[in-house]
Specification:
The protein is an all-alpha fold. It has helices spanning 2-36, 40-51, 60-82, 89-110, 124-147, 151-163, 174-177, 182-195, 199-204, 206-209, 216-230, 233-246, 253-263, 267-280, 285-297, 301-314, 319-339, 344-367, 372-385, 389-403. The longest helix is centred in the first third of the chain and has 35 residues, at 2-36.
């Protein structure tokens, strides 16, 4: 038994010695590459592979050799760009971000106390100084990939840029902690996450992005849409309401709040919200149209006509407003015709309603010729009841075509 235990210990020591020898060889090879300025990507790969082993995580030589290999790649690429020689700009930005990740990773290792509880930060100052000078390149890297619709990389760059504020390596750089560009970077990070349909990436920097007041409306649009896609309707409506309070005239928030209430058959909530909006701005065409449509759907035709008249006085370019007015008169005619006793007086009252509906439905037809399913049935009945033979023949053909 003792012999077996001794053999196992011997094998373990042999394996450890072999691993240490292989590690030393890899470091020497990498440093040779770095010194020559060639095969720097291989030097980087050698050190990256060593760091994958948790036993090597605190090896200072590996970290510093990796940093030298990547820094030299950056210097060579930067020199080529300066001399206007051909070089892949994307690669230079990628190398820049690697420098941040390496220095931050090494700093977290260096900041660990030793056996006696001491912390020696021998490299933090010089590494922080180097990174601080490269931060504009990190921001520019995000913009570079954003312009190319590479949202995975643009998010990664803005994320690394924003993460600097919480990194201890920058504790002596207060401007990094109070970066005036952070809200802009957060907005583009949020936008990149939105384009990636990644809920967590959208939400990570939402609070910071909202500090960019010039883009707050867009932020709330992206956040609201993301909540909806995630299935969180409570947060969806909450965000829409925030957006509406921020910008009542924005055509994104108001219609979606009304649609949300209507889709859940909450007509009273929709009406109350619309009324509160009109109370704040009685001449807003968007609010008046929503009120007109709500009244039409509720069968309150006289009130619908009254509100729609106000709407058309504000803006007569909205095709659907003419449709609402025409249908309010048309529906009254149909309702009266269905319930009345057939007398000449009642027939004339019905026809008068059709005559009032006619100009609005014909205007709607001109303004929205593609919406035949709305104006064909109404005009068919109007032309028929008003004995408009030529117009009726034309609309009758259209009606038959729609049936096919």
């Amino acid at each position: 038994m003792k012999r077996l235990l001794f053999c196992c210990l011997l094998l373990a020591c042999t394996a450890a010695a072999f691993a240490q020898k292989a590690q030393k060889k890899a470091i020497e090879q990498a440093r040779t590459f770095v010194k020559s300025g060639k095969n720097l990507d291989k030097a980087e790969s050698l050190m990256t592979n060593l760091l994958k082993d948790s036993a090597n995580q605190e090896n200072e030589k590996i970290w510093l050799t990796l940093l030298e290999a990547v820094k030299k790649q950056y210097d060579q690429g930067n020199e080529k760009l300066y001399l206007k020689q051909k070089y892949d700009t994307a690669s230079l930005f990628t190398v820049t971000r690697k420098l941040f990740l390496i220095c931050e990773g090494f700093d977290s290792i260096e900041a660990r106390p030793d056996a006696k509880g001491r912390v020696k930060l021998n490299y933090r100052a010089r590494h922080a100084a180097m990174l601080n000078g490269l931060m504009p390149n990190l921001f520019s890297g995000g913009a570079f990939f954003l312009r190319r619709a590479d949202f995975k990389n643009s998010w990664a760059f803005y994320d690394t840029y924003l993460d600097c504020a919480r990194q201890p390596i920058f504790d002596s750089y207060p401007l990094v902690k109070r970066d005036s560009l952070a809200p802009t970077a957060a907005y583009w990070a949020l936008y990149s996450g939105y384009r990636l349909s990644d809920y967590d990436k959208v939400m990570k920097y939402q609070a910071m992005a909202e500090r960019d007041s010039t883009r707050l409306e867009n932020v709330l649009q992206y956040v609201a849409t993301t909540h909806l896609l995630k299935g969180d309707t409570a947060k969806y409506v909450q965000t829409l309401k925030r957006g509406f309070e921020c910008s009542p005239t924005n055509r994104f928030f108001f219609p979606r709040i009304v649609d949300y209430y209507n889709s859940r058959l909450l007509a009273d909530s929709a009406r109350a919200f619309i009324d509160s909006a009109i109370a704040s701005d009685s001449t807003n065409g968007l609010f008046l149209f929503a009120k007109s449509s709500a009244l039409l759907n509720a069968g309150e035709y006289e009130e619908c006509i009254h509100v729609t008249e106000r709407l058309l006085a504000v803006d007569d370019s909205l095709a659907e407003a003419h449709c609402n007015m025409g249908l309010a008169y048309y529906n009254q005619a149909v309702e009266l015709e269905r319930t009345m006793k057939r007398t000449r007086k009642k027939k004339e009252a019905v026809n008068e309603l059709y005559r009032k509906s006619l100009p609005y439905m014909e205007t709607f037809r001109k303004m929205a010729p593609e919406q035949q399913t709305k104006w064909v049935p109404a005009l068919y009945a109007i032309y028929l009841n008003l004995n408009m033979g030529r117009e009726f023949e034309e609309i009758d053909k259209m009606r038959e075509a729609l049936k096919q």
